[in-house]
Amino acid sequence: MRMHQLVSSRPIMAKIPAVQCCYSGEQTTESQTRYRHQGASARNKSVHYRPASSHTKHQELTPSGSRADRNTSVMILQGHALCIITQTSIHARTCGSQIGSQDIGPRSLAAALSHCHKATVLGNIIAIHMLEYITAASSHHDGLHELAHDFLDVCRIMWSIEAGLVEYTRTGQSLPVEMTQEFDRKFNTAYVDFQGVDHWLNRSLSEERGGPGKKLSRGWRRMFMGNEIPKMRQALGKTRESLRVSALMFQWSIGEAKIDESLGIGYTALSAALDRLEGGKSSKASLAKASPAIDASFTSHGHDHSQVVEIALDEHISPVHTLNLPRANTVRSSTSGPPMQFSLRDEHPPRVPDMPPDAHWNGLGQIDHTRRTPSHHTDTLSTRSAHSRTTPPSDPPEDLRSGGLAELEQLGLSDHEYISDLKPTKVIRLPVNPSKMPRWAPRNSIGADTPSLKLNLVTAIRERNNKAVEQLLDRGVPANIGPDYHAVNEAIRQHDLEIVRTLLLFGADPNLAGHSGVSPLIAAVEEGFLDAASLLLKYGADSNLPPALDHDSPFALAIIKGDTHFIRLFLMYGADTNQVTVDGETILTKIISTKCNKSLVDMVLNYGADSNGKSKEGETALFRAISAGRVDIVTSLLDHHANPNLPGPKHMLWPATYQPKCLQVLLSRGADFKKTPGIMELATSINKIDSVSVLLNAGVDPNSKKDGVYTPLCSAIRDNRADIFHLLLANGGDPNVAASEYPCFKCVTHNRLQFLPHLVAAGGNLNSPKGIAETAVQFDNMEALLWLLDNGVSPNDQAPDTRATPLTTAIGLNKPDFVEVLLARGANPNIRGQDWPVCMAVKYPVILKRLLPALAQPRAFKGVIEMAVSANKLDSVKLLLAAGVNVEDRNGGVFSPLTTAIRERHKDIVAYLLDEAGADPNSPGEHLPIVKALRRYEPPDTEIIEMLLRKGADPNKVYRGHSAIIQAIEMGDSLVLRLLIEKWGVDLDAIDDSGRTPIEIVEMRGWEEGKDILIRGKKAV
Q: Looking at domain 578-588+601-676, does it have CATH number 3.40.1190.20?
């Protein structure tokens, strides 16, 4: 038989109606079927099944398939199913009598189902009580765990039968009356057994919860209660064996998945708790016990691979797509993997720490840093039974794997195709109607909202156990489990789309943020989990909603991360392109700051972003694009109505000056350069000749000033930009328009002599304003001075502001070489600048020596020697005296050279004037020299006084009512007074300006020593 495709058994089993079994035409019963599977004769026979409704026409199914033209076979090997689809159909023959010829009525079937449901509900309650007792009791009865396993086995069988009866009722199939009667009897027996277990558990729990007074009675009863456990186990074992074969039929008919999804929350929690307590052995043992006998029979009796169970179907079977079944060594099964940690005692579960992106829980509360793998699901989701609770049978459920995007299907695109391949300029808006998305209502919500069960849900999510997650949610554990945990975020961190889908189906809020301010969409963006984000959006997640105060929205976060896929996805689902991020950026400014490609900007613009929106700093997207030099984005923004004249915060032309291409685009698209006076100077200052060219071509005045001061031409000279300098001159730059200074002066001050000829050739006036030669001297630019003098500039021109001439500036700056050049080139030393040249030259003997021969009458400059004395330039004094200047010439008619030398304490000059120049020691300046010497006297230095006395200075001479004797009396210095009297004596008849004699003055002062000195001096005379 040729094998076409490998699939799991469930998709085929879900379509199989009630079947009848026959061995080569022999009529069999339900119990005989199991025993014939175990007999030796069954090794060489094929077990044939056909629909019970096929009465009029029978089909013959042969192992060889020689007479068949269509065949469907299922090979069961060690619990796994291999479905081999062949393209032959099977001829019919009579296979024997049917199992039961009388159909049960709907009322009898409903009654049997009601009794079964009654027993399963009680079983679920018992499981919860048993779990409570196991976790609460300080010590357990012998055999309690074995009793729990036996009870779980019966529960699983009961739930499988209930699921089968529900499916039969839903599909309108019938069962023989004998079978339903047998079911009813067995259900009642199971219910009685369950009541016994429940009674025993309630009694045990009551004693366990009792106070200290019940310890003695509890210990006494424990001695006798131990005998009850074997009895209960024996009763449960009989019930299990009586129901096992019945469960087998329904397992074949509806498949394991429907049975698994019907399991109650108590069963799930108790099984997990036992598994944890027994170190992971419970789940395997329970599964082996709970599985129908058919699995064990095939393994224990060694069926080879050639033995198959052939199933003939009346309806046509379409080719089945191959499923990629997970490998056992890479994917953990939900039944054989590490156990979940369930505990009903933990009323305050610890806070679950945030997991690293690659963290994986190993079932023992530890994190395994391994690569994520998809969660193992024996089927997708248990959609059929859950869906049947919310959807009429005629309305089949949606294919949840495809994402349910009807809009994309109309476009002929899947989610991923759109995200990856859609052109960014194409705008697609997908309507969101969360009310039309699949929703599941839990079977029961009573007693499920506890901290321990919520923790179990989180653990199941971390274990990537979708089946456990679904069962917990289906039994009432809320998908929104509170502030401590966030189920959807945990599933997203595990990258488990199926669990995310399950949580949303059970009502998880896609916009609910966790305690850390992370919403599901935020988590999806951070994890890069695009599929989860798409699913969340379909369930109403808002990409514009910040999860908390001072947090960015999911869309803004995608923008910040620059994730194009998420940005596109959010835009499709209504992202607001005009929202502002936490740091005050608009969506467009944030995108451009991350240097994204143009297509992303186009996409955001096409989805309605305001191209003129401003950030909190006042920046527009156009300003940001210009600053980044993105001419392509600038063009796109202008195409989307960005205003090129809107300050943001500056006018767009200012930053565009740095980007010539952007500048050209802006000017061509309506930017008004008249609103940016001085932009030409800015382009020149930043050395952007391309921008200068663009501005010139746009008609910007090359002489326009920036800040009312700076001109482009002067800036080009200042920065030595020859190319821009010549470009401006060629395009109307005026060499006579002043900035802070005139262009020609700028060439001198910044040593740009190479530009001067071009300026003059372009009409630059070297003589207006005057003073360019003086500027050359001031800036020590000999080359420029010579060029200017050679080109007709006068060496005697005065600067307009200071009236300085080139010569006086050269003298004032002590530049003998410039003085030499200027005098040689016709500078007039008799022309006053800021001062007379000779008066300025006394400070510099070298220059004075060069200047004096050029003066016609040096004596004409009165006080020049006093100026030299004041400058303490003895050489200049000598030069002036040698040039015929009078030593007694007073400066300003008051200050004589001698008195100035005494005042300044220039002893060498005093000595020279007295000894060499013949200065009169009694010729007054502002005072008599001897009086000036007394006033500048610093004890005990009497050298200048002695020099004057030695040269004939008279201490008794009165000038302006003052004499040296009177000055000494006023000073009260007996030493100086004796020095004066010893040389000249004292004239007691001399009077001061008040008419008092020296004796009267000392008497008024009461200075007896001074009086004695005066009297002795008079007698001495």
A: no
